[in-house]
Amino acid sequence: MHANPVSISLSSYGASLVRQRGQASFIDLLAAAGVSRIELREELFDAAPDTAALSAAIAASGLECLYSSPLELWTAQGAPAPQLPAKLALAKALGAVALKVSLGHYREQCDVSALQALLREGDPVLLVENDQTAQGGRIEPLLRFFQHAQGWALPLGVTFDIGNWQWQGESALQAARQLGRWVRYVHCKAVQQGADGRLHAVPPKAVDLLGWEALFDEFSPGLVRAVEYPLVGDDLLAVTRAHVHNLARLGVSEEVSHA
Predict the structure, then answer these.
(1) Angstrom distance (rounded) from CA 191 to CA 184
(2) How far apart are CA 122 and CA 2, in angstroms?
(3) Inter-residue contact 115 to 154 (CB < 8 Å)
């Protein structure tokens, strides 16, 4: 069986543990677990990272890097976020292949040419994720943005977060059917409602993994898919390996899996 590439969002190990240990400390663990990509999280850096040291360590491990920022691409005023060039520069300094942001407040009047002016040749690809907000977590505004932007030949793609659609009551399958052509990265999480009535990310069960197969039918084959749910246990290497194995099999046909 050909294993698909799997990423780990470092938020999966819990914010307190990652801040305590530092994001660089997880590089060897991920490499040993068979991970293809490390997703660094801006919100888990307590200080500006040493980009030279961190990028060198990631490259030495053989991992690909993605940099995730909570930045909203479009401001409430309808302009591209002015911090975008700095975020792209930081991602590039880290050796990241992509910068992940959320959509923000896109509307039809937004000027895509103003966004184009902020993107430089050689920058990491800009991946726009559906988040959990009303402005950035619904199919319609994301679809309108990518339809509008496709004529500009911008280095853009969708990070498709399977679980986040539930925060806005959207269908992940409908989202996959409408946005699938632009999807370049997939965040995997199952979701359940806690006793407090709030939704929480949880590890997928077999029924979740089975349901996700229909989503991957709408995407290009071989996309990197990421763990973005709690990875907890006394043996983090074993836990990580098990989930990497499960996600790597998504989108693999039965014929291939028996080869």
Answers:
(1) 22
(2) 30
(3) yes
Q: Are 104 and 111 in contact (CB under 8 A)?
A: no
Q: The domain spanning residue 30 has which CATH number?
A: 3.20.20.150
Number of neighbouring beta carbons within 10 Å of residue 108: 9
Domain hosting 31: range is 6-257
Q: How far apart are CA 209 and CA 140, in angstroms?
A: 26
φ/ψ bin of 92: left (φ > 0), alpha (ψ from -120 to 50), beta (otherwise): alpha
**What is the phi/psi pair of residue 15, to 5°?**
-60, -40
**Is residue 1 assigned to a domain?**
no
d(CA 180, CA 82): 28
Residues 6+ apart with CB under 8 A from 249: 1, 3, 4, 209, 257
Q: What is the pLDDT of residues 210-257, one digit of tens each?
A: 999 999 999 999 999 999 999 999 999 999 999 999 999 999 864 333
Residue 237 within any structural domain of the chain: yes
The alpha-carbon radius of gyration of the chain (Å, integer) is 18
Pull the structure tokens for residue 234: 């006394």
pTM: 0.95
Integer Cα distance of 109 and 35 in angstroms: 41
Identify which of 8, 74, 5 has the alpha carbon closest to the alpha carbon of residue 41: 8
Tally of domains in the chain: 1
Residue for token pair 């698909």: 4
